[in-house]
Amino acid sequence: xxxxxxxxxxxxxxxxxxxxxxxxxxxxxxxxxxxxxxxxxxxxxxxxxxxxxxxxxxxxxxxxxxxxxxxxxxxxxxxxxxxxxxxxxxxxxxxxxxxxxxxxxxxxxxxxxxxxxxxxxxxxxxxxxxxxxxxxxxxxxxxxxxxxxxxxxxxxxxxxxxxxxxxxxxxxxxxxxxxxxxxxxxxxxxxxxxxxxxxxxxxxxxxxxxxxxxxxxxxxxxxxxxxxxxxxxxxxxxxxxxxxxxxxxxxxxxxxxxxxxxxxxxxxxxxxxxxxxxxxxxxxxxxxxxxxxxxxxxxxxxxxxxxxxxxxxxxxxxxxxxxxxxxxxxxxxxxxxxxxxxxxxxxxxxxxxxxxxxxxxxxxxxxxxxxxxxxxxxxxxxxxxxxxxxxxxxxxxxxxxxxxxxxxxxxxxxxxxxxxxxxxxxxxxxxxxxxxxxxxxxxxxxxxxxxxxxxxxxxxxxxxxxxxxxxxxxxxxxxxxxxxxxxx
Length: 488
Known about the structure:
Blueprint lengths: L10 H7 L4 E21 L5 E4 L2 E11 L2 E11 L11 E2 L2 E2 L7 E7 L4 E4 L9 E4 L3 E10 L12 H5 L2 E22 L13 H10 L9 H15 L10 H7 L6 H9 L5 H13 L5 H7 L7 H7 L6 H9 L8 H8 L7 H10 L3 H8 L8 H13 L3 H13 L4 H12 L3 H14 L6 H11 L3 E4 L4 E4 L21
Antiparallel strand pairs: 1-11, 2-3, 3-4, 4-10, 5-6, 7-8, 7-11, 9-10, 12-13
Helix pairs in contact: 3-4, 5-7, 6-7, 11-13, 12-13, 12-14, 13-15, 14-15, 15-16, 15-17, 16-17, 16-18
């Protein structure tokens, strides 16, 4: 979780005083909160959770490749004076479900493992709110995630898992005086750097009007004005106001948004249009959705939820064949994998070779009946080893380790030795602990590897690299190797 900001200043003030010695004096108020378990639901259809005026029931547990989706019907009384101000964030992702200040996770307490819902997904709340009684359907997706090492959600893991609800509860408050001499404003926003265009665009966006019940021409002018005002952005997210503004044209103008999307290629405009179309599209727009899917990949979410994968098969497979396509969503790969058709395996393997989300893709396709990934993994790992990017190595090392490529450990130790980004080091250390019996901090992991590197043997059952007998050249005088296959 990212630390909160303690100081915010105007950009002009920052540029004026950047790098100068200053004195900071401030009173800082802290609110200390903790997550408290308020309920658990076993992954069984019909399982029920009651908490005061709220009642939740598991209505379905759906296996999706190496993931699972849990559907929960929730009914509660809206509390008028509920005290929490907003949802929490985990690793920068809002994960609020049900009541404000609540999150859900999937936990297997026997294995001491837990995972959060898919980022940018959370629960898809569908229901009614009549201000007193809230009724909604919540869908929680858990599965392989780009850039994260996840437990294998097999039947054994899920059999011992529960959907856990946590509530963020304040437990204390205190204040501290903060005084800092020789305080300096530092960062990339130096005097020589101009303000980001995105900040300047805010005012121009606010001045773009949308008439009530707009005509097609008025809708086009409105969309075009938003895209022009956003064209110089160099970073963007689904939470930017442009998505909501574009969605204001309504489902009746999906064709207008699609006209612009079809001609936009990539960049902020295409991103905002795709997210706005996905937000507006409804099950009754099926014909449009299937026609637009090749261009608007964001519509895959509705395709999967509506069960239209078979009708979208040609589009789904065609994207895998596109050599320019290097990042398809988890739902896209999962949809193709769900066919379990051997004639799609060459496309899946080819995509695994070139994609930028190898770990997630590998986890989704590795258990397909009859698929042989040995040569594909070997080639993909060979390419990754040539890269100087720690991310590329980490994204490929899971599949390489599970196929017994011993040089995976060397690459992971190199990341620890180089002092890469802290997140990369943490992931490298986690992989080493998973695929070897090594324990301890980074220095201990490096020392373990250096001591055992010449005698590591891959155990395919454990999927771990284990120390074998010490080589004779390094064995102390008089020592003998343990006899092979000796009965206990």
